[in-house]
Known about the structure:
The protein is of the alpha+beta class. It has one domain: Nucleoside Triphosphate Pyrophosphohydrolase (Alpha-Beta Complex). The chain is built from three helices and eleven strands, in the order ββββαββββαβββα. The strands form two sheets. Strands 1, 2, 3, 4, 5, 6, 7 and 8 form an eight-stranded mixed sheet that branches. Strands 9-10-11 form a three-stranded antiparallel sheet. Strand 9 (about 125-135) and strand 10 form a beta hairpin. The longest helix is centred in the last third of the chain and has 14 residues, at about 155-165. The protein starts with a strand and ends in a 13-residue tail after the last helix. This is CoA pyrophosphatase. It is an enzyme of class 3 (hydrolase). It comes from Congregibacter brevis. Keywords: Hydrolase. Its EC number is 3.6.1.55.
Amino acid sequence: MKRAAVALILQLRDGELGVLMIRRAEKEGDPWSGQMAFPGGRREPDDENDLETARRETDEEIGLHLGTQEPCIGALSELNAINSRFRGLVISPYVFHLERSVNFHPNHEVAEVVWVPLEFLLDTDNREEMVWERNGMRLRMPCYFYEERRIWGLSLRMLDELMDVVAGKSPERRRWRRF
């Protein structure tokens, strides 16, 4: 199976804990083109492990080096990406706590960097539904619209698990470093 990894980066901003997301650049043939996501990508043969992939891809995509100052505070459940192009792709999400201020330098894969307040994601009144259409099929899917940016799919699944950890609804919280 092919592997990928992403970084969910938390930071206290103006007294509010937020998670860093990116809006992917529009690119023909990219199944996630223009979507809200987390910095990350496919594992390269030189990557020692998935955690190293998340760190390398974050540096490449937004110019943020996640070094010893930003240790990984936890990992979320691996997810399988299923679509016609990436059958059998396993994605490993890692969570980091960023304490320093940084300037981002997005590469060609990233249209913008966005901080989404966890308070917004924890408020169930902000949850909406969308209709996803593909090959004549119509499915109702949960989503958020944060400042006109749609958060759904794999990113939403990762955020839902993160919100369970933050809200103390997950036993995984015991194994995480404090943030």
